[in-house]
Amino acid sequence: MDSTQNVERQSPVDIITDTVREHYLNARYGLKSWLFTVDHKRIAILYLITITLFFFVGGFFATMIRLELATPEGDVVSAETYNKLFTMHGIVMVFFFLIPSIPAVLGNFLVPIMIGARDMAFPKINLLSWYVFVVGGIISFIAIVMGGVDTGWTFYTPYSTVYSNSYVVLTGIGIFITGFSSILTGLNFIVTIHKMRAPGLTWYRLPLFIWSNYATSIIMILGTPVIAITVLLLALERGLGLGIFNPALGGDPVLFQHLFWFYSHPAVYIMILPSMGVISEVVTCFSRRRIFGYKFVAYASLGIAVIGFLVWGHHMFVSGQSAYAGMIFSFLSFVVAIPSAVKVFNWTTTMYKGSISYQTPMLYAMGFIGLFVIGGMTGLFLATLGLNVHVHDTYFVVAHFHYIMVGGAVMGYLAGMHFWWPKMTGRNYPEGWGRFSALMVFVGFNLTFFPQFLVGYLGMPRRYHVYPPEFQVLNVMSSAGASILAVGYLIPLIYLIWSLRYGTRATANPYNATGLEWQTSSPPPVENFYETPIVTEEPYQYSPIEAEKEYALRQKEEINV
Amino acid sequence: MSDTHSMVAHQFDDALQQKEASTVGMWVFLVTEIMFFGGLLLAYFIYRTSYPHEFLIASHELNVTIGTINTCVLLTSSLTMALAVHAAQMGNRKGQVILLVVTMILGATFLVVKGFEYAEKFEHHLVPGSSFHFHSEATLQNPGAPEIFFSLYFALTGLHAFHMIIGLGLMTWLLVKAKRGRFSPQYYNPVEVGGLYWHFVDIVWIFLFPLLYLIDRSMLV
Amino acid sequence: MSEHIQEHEHIVSKKLYFGIFTALIVLLFVTVGVAYIPMGHLGIYVAMTIAIVKAVLVILYFMHVRYSSRLIWVVAGAGFVWLIILFGLAAPDYASREWLKVQGYEQLVGR
């Protein structure tokens, strides 16, 4: 079946009938068919359920934080409890929501389909990665329920190894195990993308979503093992009273930070790169334009992945790291901004003179672009050594990373969930509610986090449950914004679940988009395609339909002559 | 000849794709292992550079003869593993089985010897933790450094030993399959891939041995 | 199918395996022997050089990388490059920590 025909993309399976067609959701029923599946699409759904649960757990902690910070006094929780709240908010959101989110849900679902394969290279390892994730999650959840951790998600020593009276080791074990889920996912993606592309699908014909997930997988493979060994050492040190990171015993606490951030900085690129991949797909579709500078975007993804490993010391400018090392890391941190900027320029140029429609995914994508720019630029402020001294450990940092992780990564995730929802579920969500929620998220987000830039610059420290009264107005704005943001997240939860039963049935290609995933039915059959596709064209062949038709007619005339 | 078509998993188009995918997959996994040990090695290098004297005298507690013998054992096991893959490629079922068994015996020997070394360390109060006591602690400029050396020694060799145990598990699985005649010139990649893992564990030891045991043995302590 | 590089099914001869093994054992004894020669700071560099040579032999011949596709070369190489990144960017911190001393540093550190 020849894919990527430009005109009126309709596949033979486009017909909506009342007779139930077999696809991956109804091929087999029962709990066992889900818990023992090796179908990448079902595994994606399993991940979707799990990470959504964790998202709302992390959101609960965020709610408590903003409740406390609505007033300058520590009147909602004690200082110790507050320490646990922000720690667990960070741990749950980073390790159990953001890092898996797009790769494990959208990546797992779409990567094989986008490359024309029947499944991943290692379907059983794929299922194993989900079980590993669940086990790690349960262990960490038990630690939370038993009383939690209060070290900050960064687990700095010697507080975490010597002085903290919380469940550090148990949480560490949970994170250690979950890290393997990441590694297995990344491994699967790399091998699958290298070895299982359909005939004719050369690297430069791949959708940019694939390039992004490939780059993300490289980071997962090279970075995650280092956090694993770091957490292991942390547990050993705490359990046995070792001195590897304890200055009283000859150890260096900054060594812990080197090891921790060697992973945790690239980890933030794990969180943003897949989102960027989503944006490339959404922006092209809803501007009806091919991406501007395909190779630049592709190589920028790889560039971010590689250079992202060279900048970790910018988290340690004031920790006791040498100033000369600081200079090196500061310079490299400026360099890493370049490929990200390249992508932003390419997306906006793609939109220029495009035929833009403001569907829900596009609203989220446009929000992403603006908010990511703010987050990225403020990252440059933080990378500047002198300025960093002033704003380190203030709310300026908190605002910066939330702009990227929430304004960027989460909005990209929501863009992708909405864009591919019809494909994954065979149902359309209510577009009106979709747009409304997107706007609500955008407004709520900015109201929550923009004041934090201001309050941080004015000197409010992070991780404090009390603050000077002059900061209250901005904090109240932030808390108010958080409540709007919360509602903005709850509404899609409701209508997406609602759509599973009551949404209109989706066609194979509701947006008339390019890409192999739209050439198969919604939802796809178990083996993704009825026949292996053969790819003959570049991606993103969006053009005004009339121009295409005219071109095709001219081609036909030339052949006939 | 064996029916190769049934050996090809449903997601693959053919046996060659499956073979290449599994080899690349194992290599990608080995890269994660390199980074896993890498973190420990960084800690080792930082502290060895910071506390050269203490690391030297702490290292001299280790027995070079035993370490050398163990290294020989492991290198030999790599040879027998490579020969086992060769036997599988040639369709020599008996050879595969014998060589896999020998590899496992050598691996187990390594672990047993390691066990004796650990027991000896325990007797001499060199296991990090509350029972740790280094004889000349009081005279050292950095009294905490020997415990750091031994923390890294046990972490590195312990992690290595753990990987060897997993390696033995892998070998057992391969042995069972080899005995049943599962492998042939058309389908031997599991043995190859198991070999890759085994060789990697060997390479880790190739680095650990000189780093831990052979710190300037010209100096008498 | 995706780029199926025809890996020539190169079967390494048993003789070569034994040869590499001999080289590994010889290098092992060289490493041990050299450790007893006084050479101060050089010791670790010599030891690591020999170890790297041994590792390369194992990788190229026992692990068949010599006869493998470029993809395998890149994957194997990437692991070592990333180790170098980890060491290479952490080391400057430790190397240069004492270059810029704050007033009262000696008192603070207790020397």
Question: What Rg of chain B is obtained from the alpha carbons, in whole angstroms?
Answer: 21 Å
Q: Main β-sheet of chain B, in a few words? A: none
**CATH fold-level assignment of chain A:** Cytochrome C Oxidase, Chain A
Could you tell me the number of beta strands of chain B? 0
Number of domains of chain A: 1
Following the backbone from N to C, one meets helices and strands of chain A in this order, namely: HHHHHHHHHHHHHHHHH
Question: Main β-sheet of chain A, in a few words?
Answer: none
- Average per-residue pLDDT of chain B, rounded, comes to 94
Topology:
The complex is a heterotrimer of chains A (561), B (221) and C (111).
Chain A: H1 31-35, H2 40-68, H3 79-98, H4 101-114, H5 123-146, H6 159-163, H7 168-195, H8 208-240, H9 253-287, H10 294-307, H11 323-351, H12 360-383, H13 385-391, H14 395-425, H15 431-457, H16 472-502, H17 545-560
Chain B: H1 15-50, H2 52-59, H3 64-90, H4 93-123, H5 145-179, H6 189-213
Chain C: H1 14-35, H2 42-62, H3 70-96, H4 105-109
Helix pairs in contact in C: 1-2
Q: What key attributes describe this structure?
A:
heterotrimer; B: 221 residues; mainly alpha; Four Helix Bundle (Hemerythrin (Met), subunit A); 6 helices; 0% strand; C: 111 residues; 4 helices; disordered N terminus
